[in-house]
Amino acid sequence: MWPFFNWKARLIMFSMDQDRRKEEERVRSEGRLPPGQALTLKFPVLHYGPVPAFNASTWDFRIWGEVEQEKIMFSMDQDRRKEEERVRSEGRLPPGQALTLKFPVLHYGPVPAFNASTWDFRIWGEVEQEKRWTWDEFNGLPRAKIQMDIHCVTRWSKFDTVWEGVSVRTLADSGLIKIKPSATHVMQHAEYGFTVNLPLEVVLADNFLLATHLNGEPITADHGYPLRGVVGFIPGRELDTPYFWKGAKWLRSLEFMPHDRQGFWEQAGYHNRADVWKEERFG
């Protein structure tokens, strides 16, 4: 899920040797060199993010959209195919999504280090009293467990995932936090200054969790350990369901806000609401 930033950079990577200059003059004389361009004898490597791993047994290629019939051309594992048909028949596969049996790793920037002795989590903004918990204190808060489907804006979906952690609704209902009536939205603040915004009603719903565990095990570092926001679809429940990026990895605080403010990916062109059933991928 990589956006097109409005970066204007020119990378000129060459050694201006005689052969390069001569070749550039030749193609210019033939009218083949566009304005502002320079010839290189190399093939520069430019891409966003790391080089992905390739697995021939799970890779696929899809033709879809405004076509008479969607085409899926791949070597596909029988279990994955059967499972995808099951969730589709149950009405649980949003438009444009495909089931994965893996848990792809997608994030911006490096994985931060975790130090339990210095880590804390903060509740602030439009609340009666700011709250701050150490790692040990946070793990002593009331726990919740939810099973839900998660849907990534990059078009993969993972089903029946079981998350454990702390419910913001429970914190509010138990009086551990007191949200002011003026609060309408929440900003998730994560490591490195990363931010994600959500409406308050989504954060207080049953399908949003401050998660520490997935399927009975602590979340791995590349998926947000020690704490991440998670939001997904609970079958049979009519709850707003944003794409999975709307839960921040490596979460450090929740800021309750009197009005909406865009987060990192939203400022980069991704949809502010990000409803999976409406395919609100880009703004």
Describe this structure in words.
With 283 residues, the chain is an alpha+beta fold. Among the domains are: 60-93, no CATH class; 99-104 and 118-267, Oxidoreductase, molybdopterin-binding domain (Sulfite Oxidase, Chain A, domain 2, Alpha-Beta Complex). The protein is built from six helices and 13 strands. It has helices spanning 18-29, 78-89, 135-138, 168-173, 200-203, 264-267, and strands spanning 60-63, 71-74, 98-99, 120-125, 131-134, 144-151, 156-166, 185-190, 195-199, 208-214, 217-218, 228-231, 251-257. Strands 3, 6, 7, 10, 11 and 12 form a six-stranded mixed β-sheet that branches. A hairpin with a 7-residue loop joins strand 1 and strand 2. It is globular, with a radius of gyration of 23 Å. The protein starts with 17 loop residues before the first helix and ends in a 16-residue tail after the last helix.
Condensed summary:
By secondary structure, this protein is α+β, with helices and mostly antiparallel strands. Helices cover 15% and strands 25% of the residues.
Number of strands: 13
Query: What characterizes the major β-sheet?
Result: 6 strands, mixed
Output mean pLDDT.
Answer: 90
- Termini distance? 14 Å
- Helix-strand sequence: HEEHEEEHEEHEEHEEEEH
Shape: globular
Please identify the structural class as seen in this structure. Answer: alpha+beta
CATH superfamily of the domain at 99-104 and 118-267: Oxidoreductase, molybdopterin-binding domain
CATH class label of the domain at 99-104 and 118-267: Alpha Beta
CATH architecture of the domain at 99-104 and 118-267: Alpha-Beta Complex
Helix content: 10-25%
Q: Which regions contain 5 or more consecutive residues with pLDDT less than 50?
A: 1-15
The CATH topology annotation of the domain at 99-104 and 118-267 reads as Sulfite Oxidase, Chain A, domain 2
